[in-house]
């Protein structure tokens, strides 16, 4: 892991992945094929890309039961407690409709309505992610979404990991389909004979999933285009190098393209963390992935002043930010760009990933400059409500008509003028 002087003006902004032209064309072809052939296309692509031939791909009640029985009771209790924490946090986000009335009889307001159907993509591949089930489904449930459809790639055995099915079972999600990749996104967006179409798709995936979400946006809504995972740690010399290194590697093991960055003013800490990362990689089960990540995208940025360190963090706009300093709350107000902020030595990033309650679907690639974690609002629509009284239109009608004519829209103006006939 390289130690770099911040004064060297290293580029900190990661480019949002666009995919290659070949990948985009492949995704477009898959989407059109699924729109045309439905289940047949989905099953063909599942055999081709996942290496498993399925006759049908909806998870059966028996598969849910088998998953529940396969896992020990303690793990079930852990998942149930985590789900309760996540639900409690998201229930505090739920907004209410509101209305405001004036003396002239005008009523203005905002009506909050949940979207009718949401699709959740849970990634598979090198790991199983029951946490992704909770983080995508629970805010949708809290918002009041009536129908939630989940898709996730099958393993070579044609099954979904037990932990993923258990998480869905705990939340009461029964519409779970064994399909991944661009074909899963197409099925959710446009529907097939088996998979019902939805109004919004959430959840991270590989580059083909990201490109497919980009393609279907407009026909359905999406949460974000998620890139590789990121962590930045802002630390002073009170931080323990072993803990900082472990937290950096907690993200590096996700993906060879993940980014792990330490920002500090302490030369001693920088050198200690550099050595600790090297040491801890020796016996890490996913060492090959993590080593590639820290070599290509990891760095230790050594700043001259604390102000420069804060500025650097805001420039990175990290998905996850840990502040491991003597007084972490003192710096919270200065952080402008971060998806999730973890304060103090006991708030390691996995605490938020799994258990604390806040959502772990977070903006990546610097998009924390303008976007937020997945939340209840993402599953809600807001309708403006306007009710003008007779007195209010009498008072303001001429102004409105004149405004319309200023924009050259005579029909707009006449729509107001015609109502004057009521008062003659």
TrEMBL record:
Its EC number is 1.1.1.23. This is Histidinol dehydrogenase. GO terms for molecular function: histidinol dehydrogenase activity; NAD binding; zinc ion binding. Catalyzes the sequential NAD-dependent oxidations of L-histidinol to L-histidinaldehyde and then to L-histidine. One of its GO terms (cellular component) is cytosol. Binds 1 zinc ion per subunit. NAD(+) binds at residues 121, 183, 206. It comes from Halobacillus halophilus (strain ATCC 35676 / DSM 2266 / JCM 20832 / KCTC 3685 / LMG 17431 / NBRC 102448 / NCIMB 2269) (Sporosarcina halophila). Substrate binds at residues 229, 251, 254, 320, 353, 407, 412. InterPro entries: Ald_DH/histidinol_DH, Histidinol_DH_CS, Histidinol_DH_monofunct, Hstdl_DH.
């Amino acid at each position: 892991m390289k130690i770099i002087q911040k004064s060297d003006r290293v580029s900190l902004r990661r480019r949002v992945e666009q995919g290659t032209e070949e990948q985009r064309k492949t995704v477009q072809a898959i989407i059109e094929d699924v729109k045309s052939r439905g289940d047949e296309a989905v099953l063909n692509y599942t055999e081709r890309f996942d290496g498993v031939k399925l006759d049908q791909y909806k998870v059966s009640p028996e598969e849910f039961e088998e998953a529940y029985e396969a896992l020990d009771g303690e793990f079930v209790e852990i998942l149930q407690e985590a789900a309760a924490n996540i639900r409690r946090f998201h229930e505090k986000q739920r907004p209410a409709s509101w209305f405001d009335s004036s003396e002239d009889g005008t009523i203005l307001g905002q009506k909050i309505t949940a979207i009718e159907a949401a699709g959740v993509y849970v990634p598979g591949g090198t790991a199983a992610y029951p946490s992704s089930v909770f983080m995508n489904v629970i805010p949708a449930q809290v918002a009041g979404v009536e129908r939630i459809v989940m898709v996730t790639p099958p393993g070579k055995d044609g099954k979904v990991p037990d932990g993923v099915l258990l998480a869905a079972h705990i939340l009461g999600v029964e519409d779970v389909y064994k399909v991944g990749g661009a074909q899963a996104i197409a099925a959710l967006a446009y529907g097939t004979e088996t998979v019902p179409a939805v109004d919004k798709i959430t959840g991270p995936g590989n580059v083909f999933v990201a490109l497919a979400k980009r393609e279907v946006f407009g026909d359905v809504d999406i949460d974000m285009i998620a890139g590789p995972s990121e962590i930045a740690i802002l630390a002073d010399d009170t931080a323990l190098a072993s803990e900082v290194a472990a937290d950096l590697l907690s993200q590096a093991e996700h993906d060879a393209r993940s980014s792990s960055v330490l920002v500090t003013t302490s030369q001693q800490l920088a050198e200690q963390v550099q050595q600790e990362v090297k040491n801890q990689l020796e016996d890490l089960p996913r060492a090959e992935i993590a080593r590639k990540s820290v070599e290509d995208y990891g760095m230790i940025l050594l700043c001259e002043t604390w102000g420069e360190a804060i500025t650097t963090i805001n420039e990175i706009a990290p998905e996850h930010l840990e502040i491991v300093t003597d007084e972490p709350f003192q710096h919270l107000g200065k952080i402008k760009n971060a998806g999730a902020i973890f304060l103090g030595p006991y708030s390691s990033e996995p605490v938020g990933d799994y258990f604390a309650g806040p959502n772990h679907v977070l903006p990546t690639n610097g998009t924390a400059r303008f976007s937020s974690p997945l939340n209840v609002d993402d599953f809600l629509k807001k309708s403006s409500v306007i009710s003008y009284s007779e007195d209010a239109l009498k008072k303001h009608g001429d102004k409105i008509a004149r405004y319309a004519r200023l924009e050259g829209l005579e029909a707009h103006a006449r729509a107001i003028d015609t109502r004057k006939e009521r008062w003659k």
